Amino acid sequence: MLSRATTSAVANRASSMRRMRRRSAQVTRLYCSTNGCTSYLVTDEIGHVAYCEICGYVRRLS
What is the three-state SS of the chain? Predict the structure, then answer.
C-alpha cells in the first residue's frame, strides 16, 4: 500500500506531464533543446535551417 505522500506525488507528476504535453502541442515555434538554453529557434527559410541566437545550436528543417 502506498503512503499518502507517495500517492499525491504520483498524481501531481501525472498532471504535470499532461500539462506539459498540452503546452508543447500548442506551440508552433521551435524550442532550443540544448541543455540550459531557454530560447526559441530563428528559422532561415532559404537554408532550411533553424538556429539559436543565444547558444548557436543549428537544426535542419525538412
Answer: CCCHHHHHHHHHHHHHHHHHHHHHHHCCCCECCCCCCCCECEEECCCCEEECCCCCCEEECC
Which domain, by its residues, includes 15?
A: 4-60
Is 1 or 48 the better-scoring residue by pLDDT? Answer: 48
Number of structural domains the chain divides into = 1
pLDDT > 70 in the chain, percent: 84
Buried b (16+ CB within 10 A) or exposed e, 19-48: eeeeeeeeeeeeebeeeeeeeebeeeeeee
Given a cut of 60, whether residue 25 has pLDDT beyond it is no
- In whole angstroms, give the CA distance from residue 13 to residue 7: 10
